[in-house]
Automatic annotation (TrEMBL):
Native source organism of the sequence: Halobacillus litoralis
Entries under InterPro entries matching the protein: DUF3939
Protein name: DUF3939 domain-containing protein
One Pfam family cited in the UniProt record for this chain: DUF3939
Length: 154
């Protein structure tokens, strides 16, 4: 009566990808290719797991391998980091989220008054209970849609 259609071969049937030493440039290039190919309604954040590591299953068609070392990506800024900078990825997400919330509440950027580099004022964020732990490094507000960076402007 009702016949089931045969499913096409699943990715699990394919042989596992080899683990290779890939550079951050290789991974960044794969992410850009994935972003170009994905449907517009799918956010790039689908690549980022809860622990900020990348979902290599989604990147497999672009990398053709799994990296030996983990890479981390900020959910807020989409910056890619190597393993030694994992804490930076976590901090940048926390501070960017706090900056976004601060700007929603006050309609002004949380920068140190008269600072030519637009350094983020952690006191302003803490005063509104938007930042629980003060980062050990400075972050700066960029001119791009109120995004932050850890790189001091020139």
């Amino acid at each position: 009566m009702w016949k089931r259609k045969k499913r096409k071969s699943n990715n699990r049937d394919q042989e596992p990808l080899e683990i290779r030493d890939l550079s951050i440039h290789d991974v960044r290039k794969a992410i850009h290719s994935y972003a170009d190919d994905k449907p517009g309604e799918v956010p790039l954040s689908v690549l980022i797991k809860k622990d900020l590591t990348l979902d290599y299953d989604l990147l497999a068609p672009y990398l053709q391998a799994i990296p030996k070392q983990p890479f981390y990506m900020s959910r807020e800024t989409y910056e890619l980091f190597e393993e030694q900078d994992r804490d930076l990825a976590i901090e940048i997400d926390l501070v960017q989220h706090a900056v976004d919330q601060y700007m929603k509440q006050t309609k002004e950027p949380p920068i140190i008054d008269n600072d030519p580099y637009k350094r983020i004022n952690y006191y302003k964020l803490e005063r509104l209970h938007l930042l629980q732990n003060r980062p050990s490094r400075d972050f700066y507000l960029t001119n791009e849609e109120f995004m932050i960076t850890y790189k001091k402007p020139e």
